UniProtKB/TrEMBL annotation, chains A, B:
HTH tetR-type domain segment(s): 8-68
A family per Pfam: TetR_N
Taxonomy, superkingdom: Bacteria
UniProt entry keywords in alphabetical sequence: DNA-binding, Repressor, Transcription, Transcription regulation
Protein name: TetR/AcrR family transcriptional regulator
Residues within the DNA-binding region(s): 31-50
InterPro entries assigned to the protein according to its UniProt record, in alphabetical order: BetI_C, DNA-bd_HTH_TetR-type_CS, Homeodomain-like_sf, HTH-type_TetR-like_transc_reg, HTH_TetR, Tet_transcr_reg_TetR-rel_C_sf
Length: 203, 203
DNA sequence: TCTTAAATACCGACCAGTTGGTATAATTTT
DNA sequence: AAAATTATACCAACTGGTCGGTATTTAAGA
């Protein structure tokens, strides 16, 4: 096997093992040795690819963020009008609930580190700002075309992002008491239906 | 000083120091020795009052939960009708945002541990179930008295709790980009206004 | 009230095990 | 041979927790 290829695979395996182990035990509680064992790699290889344990964490965060952006790409959900687009986006909640369970611990780990480390904080918080801006813009557009009722767009954006975040977190944490995969999109769509004055625009 | 009194104070100081240190550094990253130093107490005293480090964490969690329940007591906000009561409860968001900043790291710590430890999970998740049930009941009442529009009460409760949770989390994490102390209650009230068909009932 | 014994609350040195990280050697590809 | 990559052995620092001992308060007996 070519050298570069092999090295990339080693790096990838370390990242994979780290994600699994961090998720199940937490950052501090997992040792570098444990990650190496899980990845089938020795410490030498580890510290060749990552200068410190924390650097590995940051690499993992970057991976997470790029995956998230790719996953939440809202362009796929554009419909005839804004209200319909938002309706379609409610499906993201269901998908997030089914696929996101394994990622929840890492997600919380990122937030926890974000509360302390400014670098992690900046990277963690940035997507939310972007989403709020995106939804504010979308809401304004919906108002102009008449599919959404009159309101402060930035306030509406804050509400929608908060609602989605709260639904996801509760659903991922408490996956037993409620059928969240149905309830979360339903709740989101219900709130949307309140925002759309004309029932005809929201199927 | 009476023996019992002194012991209680020692215990209290350990809890206080632990909360501060856990909040600023995380559970795993803070050593028992560090807590002891901050509390002005030796290890002997520590392990006299708490059998393990984890037991201390659980004691802290219990404290947190009882404080939370006391703080969120919704009976204080009852108004003429349900819509008005909900409106008044939006102030809790502002209070939570101003006072909750110091508690956010511990809150995240609890959630993180809850994702792994069943005992912590049960205790952490229980309040949300209770709040959802409470709001579902309240919404039903509001429908019956005509101050809230027709909808599935449990769905509405899920939406309201999720919205509040998302607002609080975003506001506590990203306390710079938005004036959350105004925006959070405003967003909540805006959604409420959509649920209340009669503008007269919502001041 | 004074003495004494026991219970309580606390001290701090110490332990075995683990940690992230290093130094260096061995192996492979170019 | 040179460079890049992985393996092994090792370390100083630190971890949660233990343990024998101590000081002080409490309770009982005389």
């Amino acid at each position: 096997m070519p050298k570069q290829e092999r090295a990339e695979e080693t790096r990838r395996r370390i990242l994979e093992a780290a994600q699994e182990t961090f998720a199940s035990q937490g950052y501090q509680a997992t040792s570098v040795a444990e990650i190496c064992q899980r990845a089938g790699v020795t410490k030498g290889a580890f510290f060749y690819h990552f200068p410190t344990k924390h650097a590995l964490f940051l690499a993992l965060l970057e991976d997470w963020l790029s995956q998230l952006d790719q996953y939440l790409n809202p362009d796929r959900y554009l419909g005839n009008n804004v209200a319909q687009s938002l309706y379609a986006m409610a499906d993201l909640l269901k998908a997030g609930l089914t696929q996101g369970r394994d990622y929840l611990p890492m997600f919380l780990e990122f937030w926890l580190q974000a509360a302390r480390d400014p670098v992690v904080w900046q990277a963690t918080i940035e997507p939310y700002r972007r989403y709020r801006a995106f939804f504010a813009n979308l809401y304004l557009q919906g108002m102009n075309e008449g599919s959404l009722c009159t309101a402060d767009p930035s306030l509406a954006a804050v509400a929608m992002v908060s609602l989605a975040l709260g639904l996801l977190l509760q659903g991922l944490m408490d996956h037993e008491s409620v059928n969240w995969e149905e309830a979360a999109p339903a709740a989101f769509r219900w709130v949307l239906s309140l925002m759309a004055p004309d029932p005809a625009t929201t199927p």
